[in-house]
Design brief:
23% helix, 9-stranded mixed beta sheet, single chain, alpha+beta, 206 residues
Length: 206
């Protein structure tokens, strides 16, 4: 999906999330450098939900990108506040929506982690919520100990690009959420030539 919905009227802060495999980082960097960087603020906001805007600005934009191909840039730009007018945001979106990836507006106040254990392997996921009512889960390397990360980083490239993340309803009940995470991990482990079909480690819970 390359279309970006209209900018939501959700207060002064907007979060634009882009995810996908092998994103176009060169052109993304160019757009950020030329259209957003001139309006970046280094001032620490004391109230994240209700930021103090620069004179002339109408909103603060945060940009979060998740490249689901291991070894590619991950979690970029997120810490920077871009103070824009609505017209400047619209101009950026016009060009940005032409780049590869799925682009959605997210809830700037939701960011979390989930961990799943399969046998002796532990896997970590970063969670964000879209304004379309979905929770986005992406593998979050470097958050656990053991061999889970090493295995995931080796096997994720073997998944089709559209299967390198998970989307589920925000209000998904816990047992189904666990099942979806475990099924994703089992699908991943099943790609390992060292595992025969159906030999993924048994669940130890979340």
């Amino acid at each position: 999906m390359n279309d970006i919905p209209e900018s939501p009227n959700t207060g002064s802060r907007r979060l634009l999330i882009t995810f996908g495999a092998d994103l176009d980082h060169s052109n993304m960097d160019y757009l950020v450098r030329t259209l957003l960087k001139p309006y970046v603020s280094e001032t620490l906001q004391t109230d994240y939900t209700h930021p103090v805007l620069r004179k002339g600005a109408e909103l603060v934009l945060n940009l979060e990108t998740f490249d689901t191909s291991p070894g590619r840039p991950f979690e970029r730009y997120f810490a920077e506040d871009y103070h824009l007018t609505q017209a400047q945001l619209d101009g950026f979106l016009y060009k940005f929506r032409q780049l590869k990836g799925t682009h959605v507006f997210g809830n700037p106040n939701v960011r979390g982690h989930a961990e799943a254990v399969r046998g002796e392997l532990e896997f970590s996921f970063l969670i964000t919520h879209t304004l379309g009512g979905e929770a986005l889960y992406v593998h979050y390397a470097g958050q656990t100990e053991g061999d889970g990360d090493k295995i995931a980083l080796r096997l994720i490239p073997l998944l089709p690009p559209e299967e390198r993340h998970l989307l589920m309803p925000i209000d998904e009940i816990e047992p189904l959420r666990q099942q979806r995470l475990q099924a994703w991990i089992d699908r991943l482990l099943g790609l390992d030539l060292g595992l025969s079909p159906g030999s993924a480690p048994e669940s130890a819970g979340l």
